[in-house]
Amino acid sequence: MLTDKSSNIILKGIGILIVLVVFITMLNYNTKKESFKAGENRNDIPKKIKNIRNELDDKLMVSKYRKSYESSLIELDDVITTSILSEVCENAESISNKPLGSKSLDKIRNLNDLKLFKDSIDVAMKTLDKK
């Protein structure tokens, strides 16, 4: 059994640890909160972003590969759409039997992920059309 003196020391040690954890957490929070480097001009950020976009445009060479990109996006869209149809048809009965079961929910999440990816393909095609 612990004596009053040893339990007092343990409690003080725990108190110091708690204070240290809180201090370190606050220090981390304050460090992450300031996202700009000292002396950095925030007005330069849009220009930096534009430069990044220009580098991406240069890599893509849309004027040279537009047809290939369009065809790839169209074919990929068709594959994803057909996959969604296939998965729905193949899993309709098992999902309807137990819609909230873990296997059903996994299948539903996969279908939703395919739908999100299809939306991403649509965004890519719209972006390509603007270029």
General description of the model:
With 131 residues, the protein is mainly alpha-helical. The chain has a domain at 63-130. Helices cover 85% and strands 0% of the residues. The chain has four helices and no strands. It has helices at residues 4-33, 45-60, 62-97, 102-130. Helix 3 (62-97) packs antiparallel against helix 4. The protein starts with a helix and ends with a helix. The model has no long low-confidence stretch (mean pLDDT 82).
- Average pLDDT confidence is 82
Unreliable sequence segments? none
Q: Classify the beta-strand content into a percent band.
A: under 5%
Largest sheet: none
Overall 3D geometry? flat
Q: How do the SSEs run, as a string of H and E?
A: HHHH
Span of the ends, CA to CA: 77 Å
Fraction of residues in helices?
Answer: over 70%
Q: Tell me the number of helical segments per DSSP (H or I, 4 or more residues long).
A: 4
Write down how many β-strands occur, each being a DSSP E stretch of 2 or more residues: 0
What value does the Rg take, in angstroms? 28 Å
Helical/strand content category: mainly alpha
Write a compact overview of the structure shown.
With 131 residues, this protein is an all-alpha fold.
Please outline the helices and strands.
Elements: H1 4-33, H2 45-60, H3 62-97, H4 102-130
Keyword list:
131 residues; mainly alpha; 4 helices
